[in-house]
TrEMBL record:
NCBIfam families, sorted: YgiT_finger
InterPro entries for this protein: Znf_MqsA-type (IPR022453)
Official protein name in the record: YgiT-type zinc finger domain-containing protein
Lineage of the species this protein comes from: Bacteria, Candidatus Methylomirabilota, Candidatus Methylomirabilia, Candidatus Methylomirabilales, Candidatus Methylomirabilaceae
Gene3D superfamilies membership: 3.10.20.860
Length: 78
């Protein structure tokens, strides 16, 4: 984790959240992204704003929606 502080590059990313059983994708979130492992880290103020946006039902009602495929894992591989 200590390498993240030194090497993260500021990017705008998509973050996925499950809220009340529904998948929500938030775009354009400012985050530090580690070029070695891809881990994303957001600053505390960004995290608070993300939480506020997720709690605001008006944003969820007016947001565009996407269709997401769901694939069930099986042990069989073709």
């Amino acid at each position: 984790m200590s390498h993240l502080r030194r090497t993260c590059k500021e990017r705008r990313v998509k973050q996925q959240f499950w809220v009340k059983g529904k998948l929500i994708v938030m775009e354009n979130v400012p985050a530090g992204v580690c070029p070695q492992c891809g881990e994303k880290v957001v600053k505390a103020d960004v995290g608070r704003q993300v939480a506020a946006l997720l709690e605001d039902s008006k944003h969820r009602r007016t947001a565009r929606t996407i269709s997401v495929p769901v694939i069930r894992y099986t042990r069989e591989v073709a």
